[in-house]
Automatic annotation (TrEMBL):
Protein name per UniProt: 19095_t:CDS:1
Signal peptide (from-to): none
SUPFAM superfamilies: POZ domain
SMART domains tied to this protein: BACK, BTB
Origin: domain of life: Eukaryota
Residues in BTB domain copies: 23-96
Domain TLDc: 293-458
């Protein structure tokens, strides 16, 4: 017979934490204005933290009367109190902590190699204090990119910028970005910016990094161009030069040709003048700009692949289509006549519907709408669902099975995908008459609609 009594163990250790009368470690934390002394036990610190295990085994540690004296001026007393409580009891409560203290705890837990606590704090910031993260975006951005294991917060920051980069790149903060952050941005396919604008921003960033460099290029000498080349060496390869037009390349890129590696210039010029595809440099275009409040840009990539009947590699890059917003419920009103007027004659379109559960439903109509008031045949239409606005794990696609009943065009109603997915009253109705592969767990149900977006699909 065996048993575990973690609750009583934690309680007993908390007594030691609160009354460390047999301590053998004194840790001085904080700066001069906020200094505080903490008493602890080396055996517990070593057992719980690889950082302290290594530090206390070093020959250079200071001892006074057999007491280890340790200084951590870079950690505040508030943060260290939380750390020490976690080390002794395994307990942490961040519900009443300020955002800046939680961020400082993230940094400190990374330094002390407390991986379990580090991951918990990262999730807490994303799930419970996201409004504070947004209000202090630049501080968080600059902080998390110094932490190698902070991928979730790094991705959140980059995705936030990529979705709407103009306000950020136009701010003073952009010119003070760390190089690694800028590389992280330029590497992303979902950065919603024209490539020539990305190039212009990169040049301005590079100039700002060089002390006393004139902004007027006409005043530069060979030494200045060499300094800019050295500054941008690691970043230039992430510019998608194939997406810059020959005129823009001539007017805006060519003047800085000396800072671009020769093999890049050769391949770009061969592409523009001889239409020879590059072999070395990145030629994949970024995802197009999307006017959607329902989904994030990376889901557009998935839908584009589905349109190309590419279901097995849905994450491969696809920038063949332009999504033009032609109907928005919150803007245009929940009225089928408006839907008819805005969608008639616009060609193929994608429908996105957000319901109150945050699940997103949709469908692709490759024929378009023309008020035919009858069943319309399609062998390429499909319906789909996402669990949320950036779901790439649990998404579902149902392709048409019975082509003759793929689309029904009502003259006095909204879209209808084979009576599987259609608007009924003011709700979305889900059913399974067998015209599409069924992707719905529950059928014959109605769901309150929060938003509808319809995009005409134009091949570039």
């Amino acid at each position: 017979m065996s048993a575990t009594f973690h609750s009583s163990l934690s309680k007993d250790l908390s007594l030691i934490f609160n009354d460390a009368d047999d301590f053998n470690v004194i840790i001085n934390v904080g700066d001069v204005e906020s200094a505080k002394e903490f008493r602890a036990h080396s055996v517990i610190l070593r057992a719980r933290s690889p950082y302290f295990k290594s530090a206390f085994s070093a020959d250079w540690i200071i001892k006074e009367d057999n007491i280890i004296i340790f200084n951590k001026p870079n950690i505040t007393p508030t943060v260290f109190d939380m750390l020490l409580r976690y080390i002794y009891t395994g307990e942490i409560n961040l519900s009443k902590q300020k955002g800046e203290d939680v961020l400082a705890l993230l940094i400190a837990s990374d330094e002390l190699l407390l991986d379990e606590l580090f991951q918990f704090v990262q999730v807490h910031l994303l799930e419970r204090q996201i409004s504070w993260v947004q209000q202090n975006f630049v501080l968080v951005l600059q902080t998390v990119f110094k932490l190698a294991n902070c991928k979730a917060l790094q991705d959140y920051c980059l995705e936030s910028i990529c979705a709407n980069p103009q306000p950020f790149i136009a701010s003073n903060h952009f010119l003070s970005l760390d190089k690694d952050i800028l590389i992280g941005l330029l590497k992303r396919d979902d950065l919603q910016v024209e490539e020539i604008d990305a190039w212009d921003c990169l040049i301005q960033w590079g100039i700002k990094q060089i002390p006393d460099l004139e902004s007027d290029r006409a005043k530069w000498d060979q030494k200045d161009f060499k300094a800019l080349e050295k500054t941008l060496k690691e970043l230039v390869p992430f510019i998608r030069f194939m997406e810059i037009s020959p005129i823009e390349f001539y007017d805006k890129v060519r003047p800085y040709k000396v800072v671009i590696p020769n093999h890049i210039c050769d391949e770009v010029e061969a592409f523009h003048y001889k239409k020879i595809l590059p072999k070395i440099i990145t030629s994949r275009p970024r995802l197009g700009r999307l006017e959607s409040t329902i989904i994030k840009p990376k889901l557009v990539n998935i839908i584009s692949n589905w349109i190309d009947k590419n279901d097995s590699a849905v994450l491969s890059s696809n920038n063949k289509y332009k999504f033009n917003l032609i109907y928005l419920k919150s803007r245009d009103g929940f009225d089928y006549k408006t839907f008819n007027n805005r969608c008639k004659g616009q060609g193929p379109f994608v429908v996105l519907i957000k319901v109150r559960s945050n699940t997103i439903y949709g469908g692709y109509n490759p024929i378009g709408y023309d008020e035919r008031c009858q069943w319309v045949t399609s062998s390429a239409s499909f319906i789909f669902s996402f669990e949320n606005d950036q779901d790439i794990q649990n998404m579902e696609i149902g392709r048409v099975i019975f082509a003759k009943k793929a689309i029904y065009e009502h003259c006095n109603a909204f879209f209808n995908f084979g009576s599987h997915l259609f608007v009924k009253g003011r709700d979305l109705f889900l059913s399974n008459p067998g015209h599409y592969v069924n992707i719905f767990t529950n059928v014959d149900i109605s769901l309150p609609i929060e938003e509808i977006e319809i995009f005409s699909i134009v091949k570039k």
